[in-house]
Amino acid sequence: MLHFLSEFITTNLFLILPDTRLHEVIAYFIYDVIKILLLLIVMIFAVSILRSFFSKEKIKAILAKRHPFWAHLLAGLFGIITPFCSCSAVPLFLGFVEVGIPLGVTFTFLIASPMINEVALILLWGMFGIKIALLYVFSGLIIAIVTGYIIGHFKSETLLNILSTDNKVCSCENKKVLTWQERTGYAIKYTKNIFNKVWLYVVIGVGVGAWIHGYVPADFLINYAGVGKWYAVPLATLIGIPLYSNAAGVIPLVSVLVEKGVGIGTALALMMSVTALSFPEFMILKKVMKKKLLLIFAGVMFVGITIVGYLFNWLLK
């Protein structure tokens, strides 16, 4: 249905002749934009309903005084299903530490939340299938847990810049038990908010991907970033650090890179680096962490993402 619609729009509305490269690129662009945006609307609504059951205070209560293994695992799982908005990131981080949750466990949550967010999971599922999506979730969870353990081992609480957490309450926090009508209203509002933030990234990401799909020879990317190139994964991780985007903008590009012969581990390393190890994220974290802690965080994350990239390339070659 979507394929027919994209072909109809390209041929009859844009009047682009079939069997031409431009027709292929435009039809590819329209198909992917419609598919991704529909997936986002449906799945983000469902995830936001689930999210409405978990307030910041409830997560603190569940994580406090748990066995280290279960605390890290639960923190990673909460990071996956509860993507808190940016306005609560700093007080959430400090709030976890202040109620006695170990710093390593807090880092596990902090890493898992952007790295394994609902947008990335939805798009990977839609483009590559459930196997790749689950591998992505599992590997991201392992990175978050291991990084949290390592940072916790350094006893780095003294490397925090303690700020006041008496900030204005974020609108995404729950202060009471919600009715289903309130949960639905929250889900609609949250879905609109996320959609408004990511739709442009989707369009740009798909646009770049469509151009690569139609005009960049496959041999070019295989020669420089194919599975057999040992340097491809760490290079992709480094390239992702200065970029500013989110999963919605990167994953359409990941899809095309894989289609052109780039190793899926290499492409996913780029995506993970952009979403969880980007320079803009460092600027935010710099407000609450001293330089040494930032370097420990960045170093462990870089190694973890690189290892996962190699692992994906080896498993899926």
TrEMBL record:
<feature type="transmembrane region" description="Helical">
    <location>
        <begin position="230"/>
        <end position="255"/>
    </location>
</feature>
<feature type="transmembrane region" description="Helical">
    <location>
        <begin position="261"/>
        <end position="282"/>
    </location>
</feature>
<dbReference type="InterPro" id="IPR005524">
    <property type="entry name" value="DUF318"/>
</dbReference>
<dbReference type="InterPro" id="IPR053166">
    <property type="entry name" value="UPF0718_permease"/>
</dbReference>
<feature type="transmembrane region" description="Helical">
    <location>
        <begin position="25"/>
        <end position="50"/>
    </location>
</feature>
<keyword id="KW-0472">Membrane</keyword>
<feature type="transmembrane region" description="Helical">
    <location>
        <begin position="100"/>
        <end position="125"/>
    </location>
</feature>
<keyword id="KW-1003">Cell membrane</keyword>
<keyword id="KW-0812">Transmembrane</keyword>
<comment type="similarity">
    <text>Belongs to the UPF0718 family.</text>
</comment>
<feature type="transmembrane region" description="Helical">
    <location>
        <begin position="198"/>
        <end position="218"/>
    </location>
</feature>
<keyword id="KW-1133">Transmembrane helix</keyword>
<dbReference type="Pfam" id="PF03773">
    <property type="entry name" value="ArsP_1"/>
</dbReference>
<protein>
    <submittedName>
        <fullName>Permease family protein</fullName>
    </submittedName>
</protein>
<feature type="transmembrane region" description="Helical">
    <location>
        <begin position="132"/>
        <end position="151"/>
    </location>
</feature>
<feature type="transmembrane region" description="Helical">
    <location>
        <begin position="70"/>
        <end position="94"/>
    </location>
</feature>
<feature type="transmembrane region" description="Helical">
    <location>
        <begin position="294"/>
        <end position="316"/>
    </location>
</feature>
<dbReference type="GO" id="GO:0005886">
    <property type="term" value="C:plasma membrane"/>
</dbReference>
